[in-house]
Amino acid sequence: MGHIAHRALARDPRDRPAWARLGRARWLIDKYKAGSEEALRSADGAFQTALRLNPDLTMAHNAYTQLQVDQGRSLDALKRLLDRGRRRSDAELFAGLGHVCRCCGLLQAALRAQQEAHRLDPSILTTINHTYFMLGDYQKALDTSGGDFGYAEGVMLSALGRTEEAIAKLRRSEEIIWRLGRLYVISLRALLEGNREESLQACEELRKATFRDPEGIY
Q1: From CA 180, how far away is CA 15, in angstroms rounded?
Q2: How many whole angstroms separate alpha carbon 28 and alpha carbon 43?
Q3: Architecture of the domain delimited by 1-54
Q4: Whole-model pTM?
């Protein structure tokens, strides 16, 4: 995604969606691979450029929300999305609103926002599976976990008592994801296997790498 965005910007430096996609690519690489302040600032800058060029670009508002949550700026994201939402009804805005509401502890509001996002655009990706999980509806959480890199499905399966399935799923995920994501998965897989020391070691490596996702840390 980052390479495509770079090529688009080489043709047109004012390509708003390309700036948003570049920000998302840099955020994802930072989150699961780099773990650096420099990469996070670079992602933030790309999102700000996209929104400066087009303040109504809802895809940028949605993606920027997850970065701001990882920065500890959930209230900033919530205020921004509520302000935009007063002006228009859009699936991307509701998807971002659902994510940040959950991170602010507003679980029912998060669920309603994400359900509205799916009503407006059934194909949109949201974090509604995590909202169901926080509400204790583990089956719905599992049913809506498609597209996750493996950790969420492992959590949901284990919550449903399907521990062996969870371990198998997590072991497969360890083979394909970036370094920080792999540590994230190992921490849960080792815990489910009863290997306390391996789980703690993975958690410590994540902590040293400045893994920022507040729900992930929890």
Answers
A1: 31
A2: 9
A3: Alpha Horseshoe (1.25)
A4: 0.87
Residue located via tokens 């949901």: 156
Whether 1-54 and 69-137 share one fold: the answer is yes
Query: How far is the CA of 114 from the CAs of 2, 54, 111, 158, 187, in angstroms?
Result: 27, 24, 5, 24, 29
Task: Give the CATH fold of the 69-137 domain.
Answer: 1.25.40
160-197 pLDDT tens trace: 999 999 999 999 999 877 888 899 899 999 999 999 99
